[in-house]
Amino acid sequence: MTGMTFPALLQHFFTDRLCTQMEASRHTIAGYRDTFRLLVRFTAARSGKPPTCLGIADLDAEVIGDFLIHIEMARGNGARSRNTRLAAIRSFFRYVAMNEPEWLLHCQRILALPDKRYVKRSVTFLDGPEIAALLAAPDRSTWTGRRDHILLLVALQTGLRASELTGLRRRDVVLGTGAHVRCLGKGRKERCTPLRRDTAKVLQNWLKEWRSDDDGPLFPSIRGEPLSRDALEHLVRKHCLTAARSCPSLAGKRVTPHTLRHSTAMELLHHGVDQSVIALWLGHESVDTTQIYIHADMRLKEKALASVAAPETRPD
Fold this sequence. Notes:
By secondary structure, the chain is mainly alpha-helical. It has helices at about 5-20, 25-45, 60-75, 80-100, 105-110, 130-135, 145-160, 160-165, 195-210, 230-245, 255-270, 275-280, 290-295, 300-305; strands at about 175, 180-185, 190-195. Strands 1-2-3 form a three-stranded antiparallel sheet, with no helix packed on it. Strand 2 (about 180-185) and strand 3 form a beta hairpin.
């Protein structure tokens, strides 16, 4: 068979398909890159070939299946992570099938590999007292404490994803009448999220304190660079530990940046905001995605139960 080699196909997949055609986000590209870094290493070790000598034939359905087992058993990946890796691999082999049709049957076998089923757990979110304790945790007498406080406040009010939050620039903040933040979400879709008056005021003070050009990061590291995802996760975890001293219920929760996003959705839901508006607020593709918050909230279920009259029963 003739055509492009595996290294060439993989390079074109990233440059042409992901970057140019799909305009994938930096976070998506990084996830795909990590998947193929692991897959190439696994296949090279298994075949005894250096990565540059691997061909499409070396990555068949059996190898991909064994790789998925490997990342679960040897690397401790859960079913969600395993399925995310498989989605990236499927995307590549769909690209191969379109561009090198002689490999169509080979690709079909890989595309037929199923996702792994798993139990969907209820989402974790913070209630009012927990949110208040978390926002009070940073030491606002320090520069990093003030940065962390406003970052947590913006995260909890807007529900931005971790990648959207760390990607915010000064120019993305619009103050005054109709104050809001702009962000580039999944699928390169821009959305605007309104800011409460108190959040806008704190942001205004922060912009005066942290002076840089409009393209500078809104929440920089001490070196003036955008915060990494790891740094964001670390500061959330650190302040949760501090907040747990005054709010013990936090000690029993695993709080991540995504937990803050869930908390935003639950706050909107508790205040009677329609699901379609919540979906727009969070940048969800479908209103169906917001169903997880209804299922997670016992207060809404108890309210629904209270509105239903109890059936009449005869006394014994």
